[in-house]
Request: fold
Amino acid sequence: MQPVKLCAFLVTIDLLIKSEGWELTNISTPIIEFKNVGLSYGDDEVLKNIDLELEAGKFYTLLGPSGSGKTTILNLISGQLTVTHGDILFEGNIINDVPVEKRHMNTVFQDYGLFPNMTVFENVAFGPSIKGMSKKDIKTKVTEMLTLVKLNQYADREITELSGGQRQRVAIARALANDPEVLLLDEPLSALDYKLRKEMQYELREIQQRLGITFVFVTHDQEEALAMSDWIFVMNDGVIQQNGSPEDIYDEPINHFVADFIGESNILDGIMKTDYLVHFTGKDFENVDAGMRPNERVEIVLRPEDLDLTAIENGKLIVTIADQSFRGDYYEITAIDDDGNEWQVQATNKSKIDERVGLTFDPEDIHIMRFNESENDFDARLESYEGEEDAEK
Amino acid sequence: MPKSKKQRQLFYLMPYGLWLLLFVIAPLILLLFQSLTTQNGQFTLHNYALYFSSGTYLLMTFNSVWYALLITIITLVISYPTAYLLNQLKQKQFWLLLVILPTWINLLLKTYAFIGLLSKTGTVNNFMSLFGIVPQQLLFSNWSFLLVAAYIEIPFMILPIFNSLAEINPRLEQASRDLGANRWQTLRRVIMPLSMPGIKAGIQAVFIPSLSLFMITRLIGGNRVITLGTAIEEHFLVTQNWQLGSTIGIILIVAMVITMIFTRDRKHSRKRG
Reply:
């Protein structure tokens, strides 16, 4: 068999495997695994003892403020950085010392990193031509990729002739042209305007599902993370604060940082008197959390969209409207209770400043956060009393 | 002060414009005029005919181009890796300064310093004699000429290449590695094409002056290498044949213009389909 034909044959097999969803690797082996990974520059610990496992074919997001270590994790996966301690595994094999160019993953950079001396076509063809693919195969591959990102009319354009959104698409096509098993995306949408960003969020998600490869997406935009991901890692200070599905992380933030960073939150100090009874703002409230010590000091999270304004006699708390601003689909209201706590409320109706109204919420809207609870303890506690509840039912 | 913008621009241009007129344009016209006239001031193409029919002058032209080419290639081969390395260093501005430093010293002084180094009783031979090697004649050879010429031209090659390399976004190197290219492939397919403007500028800065070198050919090369520069000097100062000297000068200028055209930065030259 001629080498060209053999190559085409292998590509066909490759496509077949992808389109039929055949799995060659053991499903139980994570595609990427971090074992106690740390990275330091001198005394500066950028990443502290990170453990994580990524399954093949999922959309993962590393979410955190700048300096939280999220891009560092991405650079460790791609091989641009090397660990100070710990191991990084790819399909079960340690890849700590495998150079960037030998890893089966590609990156979409924040500033795209497109080659300015090459056309759109040449940029996308870069990876395949390095691999030594034939001219014909390269053309097929590039056309396929440019079609995927809806840029097939632009193959002969210079990079300087493209808009930001189009450059973004070229960067995605270029990274995907190498058939990576993992695509790494470093805040790729941050330079785009709001509308374009929304569009690209949707398209990226679609591309990921069509190709069925693993995406690792880095962002500081919690909305983006919630909208796109199968699984989110929330990072701060070089530590994974919490990981879980978007719903888990939004509904059950583990600590003050996560509650504050993901969505809008009202965070108050309180005391967990017994299971299912919490005390804050001088009153006792029924709630749905358990598994803590009696009279343990905790923090309480109430989401603005879970709060409702009502008549004074129906309110669990009485508040005074201090400020409001119109946000299009709702009014953002700031209200002060009699203890002086500030409450953010999202209301559908307009209010009057200085009006006294009732504030109400349901027991399941009260989220309890213990101080310094680890993710493992958190999960174990949730399991223990949720198990009890199921047993009672 | 003149009022309108155009008048103001003209005003600022005046000092250099005058300079240009007196010391560049006027001499060029004189040079052209002289090359086209006899000693009595009559129009003639004799000088050009003589130049192109004489094997000696054509050989000199060939020598000039050949040695300028060798000097350019030697400096390029040394300068590109050096500029690349300089760019990776932390204190790159400091190291660059060290490279540029020799250009602040007068050319003649540097040339004499090399005579001191390379002569039969010079530093190099003294050092070699420590190992029992008999003093050699190092000066007045093609090799010593190339060595000194390259030494003098290297900073002029390094500087533009360094600047063009410094302008390249380091992300592009990362992206290239990420896409599977090793260091060498990245250098060849990304870094080198992007530093081409610097390479071209460096070639201009080295090749063109090298065409008319004459002092080094005399002092270091011992007039073994006769270039057009040497020929011009001979005609003006020794044989007093200014007409032929001017002709060679014009030919040299034409050669320089051709070099400029070949090495100019051709942006937007790619045709779109």
Remarks:
- Confidence is low (pLDDT under 50) at residues 20-26 of chain A.
